[in-house]
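User: Can you predict the 3D structure for this chain?
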Amino acid sequence: MRHRNLTSQVLIAVKDTPVITLNGPRQSGKSTLMMELTAAGYRSDYLTLDDLNLLSYVRADPQNFVEGLRGPVVIDEVQRVPDLLIAIKRSVDRERTPGRFLLTGSTRVLQLPKLAETLAGRMELLDLWPFSEGELAGVEDNLVDQLFASKFDLPSEPPKPVRPLVEALLTGGYPEVVERPEERRAGWFQSYLQTVIEREARDVANVAGLADLPRLLGLLAARYGGLLNYADLATAAAMPQTTLKRYLAVLHAVFLFHPVPPWSTSRTSMLSKSPKVYLNDSGLAAYLLGTDRERLEQMPHLIGLLLEQYVMSELSKQITWSRIRPALYHFRTHAGQEVDFVLETRAGDVVGIEVKATGTLSAKDWQGLGKLAELAGPRFRRGIILYRGDTLFPAGPNRFAVPIAYLQGAYQRRPEAISSPAESPSRG
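Assistant: Here is the predicted structure, written as structure tokens:
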């Protein structure tokens, strides 16, 4: 059983919060995390709404169901009965014992405004993604926090990756896929998508036309890393934009579509307002594109596309257990200057991350980070380029070239080098 780095965050939450909701894609490892919590001393009953008899009973009388519970309880797939949250709210208002309810779900339905407001001040939301590279290596990887540290203190020697880069890109992080031989992965992804669309998507959407979702997902895979153009995508999908937007919301709700919003500042209107298109996993993207090792050798430009998807996924995972918990954006001006990813803290500090699939860098590669630094001003903390070279080196004030191995390999955070989120670190 592999350790999940989010476990420590859940254990902290159950000590001071009545309701903890663990969201994440189906088959991302929520059951494994539950076993870790039990081993760590969080004792609870376990109920799943995948059980049709229980599901029927809870739908008929959620209030009676909640009133009959005794002690801490894990309720799995809670999105299947949204009215259950209202009953939980009433119960928590009478008894606010920490850790009473640990809810898990495979959709973002719990983050819809109406439902989020139901448990406002009573619930902590946590996202669980498929395995990160650090989890596969057995360490708590956290390059994200180090990027905001007062001193950028990476070891001079890149860590040894737990798996070759191409293997990581093609496999992704889903636990079932990681454990399967290469020839068996496509079959798993095919069955997985069918299950998610027929179950989770139907629960969320309750609309006809779900048969169009796999085709739409394939169109998104062909566009990942690019700006979301609704008109272009609607034409390719042969559907009205209103229908397209509704279907994209469904794919986002079931954690398959992961748009990254644009970073902006009130000081300029020269920035793009469109999100960038990503899926939740590079292995899933490779499957949808029909990409394998042979195709990567024939079309090496695909490595760059998969690498950007892979970096987005790894950053999203690390953010969930980061001390700073920055938001993830992209940066692009109307003139075409861009930075693949921007991390911004609640205090407004900004880090830029550019991704290059080459082993060498040129002066032109730093232009996007330079523009971001100009617009962010004193809020700009650091800019890095993740690339396929072997050397970590400074490339100007607060600029660093960083081998992808520091993200991909067993890089473990060192708490003493990381400033507390409550502090305002000196810039360096």
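Residues 103 and 300 are 43 Å apart (CA to CA). Residues 413-428 have pLDDT under 50 and may be disordered.
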